[in-house]
Amino acid sequence: MTRRLVAASVLAGLTLSLAACGDSGDNGGQAAAKPADPVIWVGAVCGGIDGSLRGMLDVLKTAKDNPDAAPETQKQAALKLLDTVEPAIKKSKEDMEKSGTPSNPAAAELHKGLIEIYDKSLPALADQRRQVMALDPKDPQFTQKIESIDAGGGAADTQGLREKTKGLENDPELKSAQEKAPGCQKMKATAKEFGQVLGIPGS
User: Fold this and answer.
1) Biased-composition ranges for Basic and acidic residues (predicted)?
2) Distance between start and end Cα atoms, the chain
């Protein structure tokens, strides 16, 4: 059930992209004349990652508590996830654009890369929601159909982005900003809870 619900959400690729970027330094921002305030910028990025993780966490908890959920329950879980992640990354993108581009070159690369991911993902998420809504839980092929909904519209060169932003996790200014940004503290708590639900040691 857990596997099916995650597949049904059609967001695994997007969430992993966000988490990967977060591991590279939990950063974001957008083009503006004035360099971004590191705390505001990092908080905007963390908000998008936290929303994605929180959405998947709720689905995983549902799956764990109800491993044999009926197709209708699976459909509603997928819709809930989409309805959680889409507004979270939309707000993150808007906040990043308002904050401005970071002065740190690697952070600026991450900012640009995340905006590109969001630009591709938002319309893809809306399309995925329409596809999930159209599914009939009574259809014998329901499981196959919901798992076939692809997250390709949100695909991005995550590995390339990580390479360009390598070392951000050691940037003292950004590390300090993460400690000060409430959104990043919330994201860390969600990530820890996510790991605990999955049984990851050290979470």
Assistant:
1) 160-178
2) 23
pLDDT at 49: 86
Token digits of residue 71: 């197709």
**Average per-residue pLDDT in the chain?**
77
Measured between alpha carbons, how far is 166 from 83 in angstroms, rounded to an integer? 32
Q: What is the rounded distance in angstroms from the CA atom of residue 13 to the CA atom of residue 7?
A: 10
Query: pTM for the full model?
Result: 0.74
Give the integer Cα–Cα distance in Å for 4 and 133: 16
Taking the CA atoms of 30, 25, 114 and 52 in sequence, report the sign of the dihedral they define.
negative
Domain ranges of the chain: 2-198
Half-sphere exposure of 46 (CA within 13 A, CB side): 25
Closest CA to 174 of 90, 102, 119, 101: 102
What is the rounded CA–CA span in Å between residue 22 and residue 168?
10
Give the pLDDT mean for 55-82. Answer: 83
